[in-house]
Design brief:
- By secondary structure, the chain is α+β, with helices and mostly antiparallel strands.
- Helices cover 20% and strands 40% of the residues.
- It is built from four helices and eight strands; from the N terminus they run αααβββαβββββ.
- Strands 1-2-3-4-5-6-7-8 form an eight-stranded antiparallel barrel.
- Strand 6 and strand 7 form a beta hairpin.
- The chain is globular and about 55 Å long.
Length: 169
Amino acid sequence: MNRRSIFGVSAMTAMGLAFVPSNAVSQQKSLKEQLVGAWTLVSCGSTSANGAKSPQCANPNGILILDASGRYATVTANRDRPKFTTGNRLEIPAEQFKATVVGFAANFGTWSVSEADKTMTMHYEGALFPNIEGAELKNSVSLTGDELKLAGAIPVLGGRSETVYRRAK
């Protein structure tokens, strides 16, 4: 076989292989695998059972971290929370502390996904608001590119939550 025919066969083989889907390309990642990572908060729309909007969702800033082992942590803060008049947290007057904490939410625990109904369940182990510890939050999941939307009823407190995140880069 001359060099030209060897090159032609090699080129045709390479082109043919380019059109054969590899396992990595042909197999879609599971929903859980797609959710793993860090997500920055874009917007949140939490309302209580009586329709009041959650203070942390006014001009919000936050993060959601979902790890592959099924652990999560999330923090949401109103960017406009008042600053303390002291640098020592043990000396903060109660009214200043309340005004700042009302615009802040944080919790952590475990998470799981139902691939069939595209939902994520978060089990609260610890939270700034201890009344939700031990409760579960089940959210519908919508994932489009780097945008994650979570929506569901808020346990214990009543009301609903609709939150949008963007994958952290």
